[in-house]
Amino acid sequence: MARLATRFVCTECGAAAPKWTGRCEACGAWNTLEAEAPSPGAGARKAGRAAGRGVEFVGLAGETPLPERIPVGISEFDRVLGGGMVQASAILVGGDPGIGKSTLLLQAAARLANAGKRVLYISGEESVAQIRLRADRLGLRDAPVSLASATVLADILGALESEKHASLVVIDSIQTIWDETIESAPGTVAQVRSNAFALIRAAKTQGFALMLVGHVTKEGALAGPRVMEHMVDVVLHFEGDRGHQFRILRGAKNRYGATDEIGVFEMTGRGLAEVANPSALFLAERHGHVAGSAVFAGLEGSRPVLMEVQALLASNAGGSARRSVIGWDSGRLSMLLAVLDSRCGVKLAGHDVYLNVAGGLRVSEPAADLAVAAALVSAATGVPTDPETVFFGEIGLSGELRQVAQADLRLKEAAKLGFSRATLPRRVAGGNRRLATPDGIVLAEYGHLSDLVAATAGRASRSGDEI
């Protein structure tokens, strides 16, 4: 019998190659090929495969009831899930080591168990004694959660088959589960893909919700084959800097709800506490009348969030200027600096530029362009932005200001937190619906970035400074 050859599978796209190369030919990613030993008997099964019975096709028309949801009991968690867990769904939660994934899931498991649901918590990384110590620290010792420490897939599946009334099963983590029939170590491509498929199939068959904890790579992406993200119904990223107390639970995929929703938590000595008003928390330590600061009225999913954008300029006598960005896209910062230079005459080439989104939140929407530009112009002139003004708007390469979605929600959040003015792109006459401006908010609308620079320059000249 010929020896089965080992193949190499890309962890990014799942493409297979007969030998290892530094670069995946399918997706172009570097150093992503991992060895995968084929299962014995695969060729024989293929040769002896019987003819299938076929599948039944139906039309699009028809009545399908909405999926039944089980609220976790943590409102920020339920917000990201779209209102709660769906029965027979698979949820993948990823995040950096020590960020609080196990803490969050243990708190969620305890809430469900206290509500009368059958909850199973299986850990392959910690012993039962370690989980109990964490539960003591979080004040959850009395929650009726069923704990187990196991790593062998067959043992876990055997235990789950006897559970007829389980509502939630937590696996912490999928990289520690081992299938004895696969000749590779736990955490490899073959193990993770096969074990995830087996556990998801058990969840779909028996009707319980499955939560899988996934490790992340040093780049912040979920470790293991990307096909695992396609198999599950929901992908959640638990983000945050361990130097900050804030944690962000972000939905990257959700087959039963909206994506890009966020839940905000604060890490405390008693675990993760919900933050009902993240805007107030992100702005709690903001000091007004400081040059280089602007408040951005952002939107995370369907939730408006106000946050502070900070910019600092430092003279660079020689060499290439440095661009350091935390919480925003560095490429977009380079674009804005080029627009300020070419279209508005603000020369920053001889300065090191440092940009930070305070609070540890990462912003991805282009609506932050105007707030970043206002912070940069403020830092260049030394004139603080108005502490009662929020900024939002997209900036094009010609310097024009473009409108962004959900301006009403952004203004409403600003008014709720006591802001009295908003700087935003000018509305096109007759081209857009009427903007519902909250009482107490005065709008400053600009059509081009140079208008904002001119207004700031006017304030600088009155105070004796120059750009």
From TrEMBL:
Keywords assigned: ATP-binding, DNA damage, DNA repair, DNA-binding, Hydrolase, Metal-binding, Nucleotide-binding, Stress response, Zinc, Zinc-finger
Domain of life, source organism: Bacteria
A single cellular component GO annotation: cytosol
InterPro entries named among the record's database cross-references: AAA+_ATPase (IPR003593), DNA_repair_RadA (IPR004504), P-loop_NTPase (IPR027417), RecA_ATP-bd (IPR020588), Ribosomal_Su5_D2-typ_SF (IPR020568), Ribsml_uS5_D2-typ_fold_subgr (IPR014721), Rubredoxin_2 (IPR041166)
GO MF annotation, one: ATP-dependent DNA damage sensor activity
CDD domains assigned to the protein according to its UniProt record, in alphabetical order: RadA_SMS_N
GO BP term, example: recombinational repair
Motif (RadA KNRFG motif): 253-257
SUPFAM superfamilies, A to Z: P-loop containing nucleoside triphosphate hydrolases (SSF52540), Ribosomal protein S5 domain 2-like (SSF54211)
Residue segments, region Lon-protease-like: 352-467
UniProt: ATP binding residues: G95, D96, P97, G98, I99, G100, K101, S102
Limits of the RecA family profile domain: 66-216
Pfam families: AAA_25, ChlI, Zn_ribbon_LapB
Protein's job: Plays a role in repairing double-strand DNA breaks, probably involving stabilizing or processing branched DNA or blocked replication forks. DNA-dependent ATPase involved in processing of recombination intermediates, plays a role in repairing DNA breaks. Stimulates the branch migration of RecA-mediated strand transfer reactions, allowing the 3' invading strand to extend heteroduplex DNA faster. Binds ssDNA in the presence of ADP but not other nucleotides, has ATPase activity that is stimulated by ssDNA and various branched DNA structures, but inhibited by SSB. Does not have RecA's homology-searching function.
NCBIfam families according to UniProt: sms (TIGR00416)
Homology family: Belongs to the RecA family. RadA subfamily.
PANTHER family: DNA REPAIR PROTEIN RADA, DNA REPAIR PROTEIN RADA-LIKE PROTEIN
Domain notes: The middle region has homology to RecA with ATPase motifs including the RadA KNRFG motif, while the C-terminus is homologous to Lon protease.
Name of the protein this chain belongs to: DNA repair protein RadA
Lineage: Bacteria, Pseudomonadati, Pseudomonadota, Alphaproteobacteria, Acetobacterales
